[in-house]
């Protein structure tokens, strides 16, 4: 078991560095504006581009994961992200900076699902939900690293040294992955996906999407994750400062609270999923309902909300991060090892597609409603409700179909939530 924790720990360390790479540009917005002579609208497109690339790469990354395994993909992702950060460190040209972010997004897309796939290979099935949650939550330490040591280095040493440092850190992280990460425990055999043409790969993706368990994971990931991610990546700080009267430092502190809540909630959600696998969808629907309720309460107010209510808002929506990882647990439940990477990639698209729709939709509403005002933000946050409606509908319909799908195997009204032993290890 010590070997399992060593392999997993090295994978998680690479994922922490990946999150640092992902979030580094977001905390260096003012420095980026000076370096690339870009206005706020151009800088916001970097965030949208990052989400598009990350989401668009999920299925290709999943297919490659099924073909080449976790070790190769973890190392490849680390090297590609390091190249992107090195390009950002060296260039002062906007087009090359965009290319650098594309490389970071591509490498980032390879990392999480690859580390997540190690978990069911090295740990007993009863421990998988908890370890999976810990994987996702520990990765968020990378966001703290970008907000504290990276930002301090950026202010002290400047753009090029700071981005060079994180590029070097990415390469250093790849070294123990090469030496210590193995796809399977010694003596285990794995059947990997055979090389296939585009037509066969397309058929594989269609078949996975046709399985209701995949769609259950997809809509779970979408409905729980998008609100907190759109808040943290783009609109949270402008909303708190411009519409709610927070200072920049107070808004930043509140985002740190968001990370802390996720770190605490992750193991709790994982433990609940492990103990009550027949009730995972009820847990997900409860998390989503709580987010809808708290946002409705805040937006119903005719003026700025009390500070305690905004803190409660951040706490409640931050539980959506751990909740979204239940979607990956569904992928693990219903798909075998040879297609698990692709299934996890499809699930991962859900939350980032919802995030993209929220970020873009809110930007359009804010532009037409007068900018960063209280009333404009009040309208803009309403963009969330259609996305929640889609996710709720998708979960309820796919859950019903998944139950029918499992009726020949398992009897019981909540069988759609069962972690089948044959698919869990």
Automatic annotation (TrEMBL):
One annotated GO molecular function: transmembrane transporter activity
GO cellular component, one term: plasma membrane
Broad class of where this protein is predominantly found: membrane
Membrane topology: Multi-pass membrane protein
Keywords: Cell membrane, Membrane, Transmembrane, Transmembrane helix
Membrane-spanning segments: 43-65, 72-92, 162-181, 216-238, 250-270, 282-302, 308-328, 340-359, 379-397
Subcellular location: Cell membrane
Pfam family, one: MFS_1
Domain Major facilitator superfamily (MFS) profile: 1-403
This protein's name: Major facilitator superfamily (MFS) profile domain-containing protein
Organism per entry: Nocardia aurantia
Origin organism lineage: Bacteria, Bacillati, Actinomycetota, Actinomycetes, Mycobacteriales
């Amino acid at each position: 078991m010590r070997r399992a924790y060593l392999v997993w720990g090295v994978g998680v360390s690479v994922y922490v560095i990946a999150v640092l790479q992902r979030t580094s540009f977001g905390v260096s917005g003012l420095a980026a504006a000076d370096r690339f002579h870009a206005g706020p609208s151009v800088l916001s497109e970097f965030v949208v581009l990052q989400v598009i690339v990350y989401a668009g790469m999920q299925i290709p990354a999943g297919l490659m994961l099924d073909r080449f395994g976790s070790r190769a993909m973890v190392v490849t992702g680390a090297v590609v992200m390091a190249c992107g950060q090195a390009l950002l460190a060296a260039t002062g040209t906007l087009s090359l900076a965009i290319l650098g972010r594309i490389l970071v997004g591509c490498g980032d897309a390879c990392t999480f699902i690859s580390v997540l796939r190690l978990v069911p290979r090295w740990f007993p099935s009863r421990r998988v939900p908890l370890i999976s949650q810990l994987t996702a939550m520990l990765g968020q330490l990378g966001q703290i690293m970008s907000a504290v040591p990276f930002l301090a280095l950026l202010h002290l040493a400047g753009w090029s040294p700071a981005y060079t440092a994180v590029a070097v850190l990415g390469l250093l992280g790849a070294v123990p992955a090469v030496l210590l990460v193995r796809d399977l425990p010694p003596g285990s055999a794995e059947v990997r996906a055979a090389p296939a043409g585009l037509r066969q790969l397309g058929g594989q993706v269609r078949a996975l999407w046709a399985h209701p368990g995949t769609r259950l994971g997809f809509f779970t990931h979408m409905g729980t994750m998008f609100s907190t991610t759109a808040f943290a990546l783009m609109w949270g700080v402008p909303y708190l400062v411009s519409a709610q009267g927070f200072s920049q430092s107070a808004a930043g502190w509140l985002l740190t609270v968001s990370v802390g809540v996720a770190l605490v909630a992750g193991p709790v959600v994982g433990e609940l999923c492990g103990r009550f696998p027949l009730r995972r969808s009820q847990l997900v629907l409860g998390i989503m309902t709580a987010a809808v309720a708290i946002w409705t309460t805040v937006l119903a107010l005719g003026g700025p909300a009390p500070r305690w209510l905004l803190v409660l808002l951040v706490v409640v929506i931050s539980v959506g991060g751990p909740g979204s990882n239940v979607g990956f647990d569904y992928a693990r439940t219903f798909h075998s090892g040879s297609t698990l990477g692709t299934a996890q990639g499809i699930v991962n698209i859900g939350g980032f597609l919802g995030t993209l729709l929220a970020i873009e939709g809110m930007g359009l509403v804010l532009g037409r409603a007068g900018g960063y005002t209280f009333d404009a933000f009040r309208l803009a946050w309403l963009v969330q409700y259609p996305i929640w409606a889609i996710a709720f509908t998708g979960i309820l319909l796919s859950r019903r179909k998944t139950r029918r799908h499992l009726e020949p195997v398992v009897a019981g009204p909540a069988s759609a939530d069962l972690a089948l032993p044959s698919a869990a290890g």
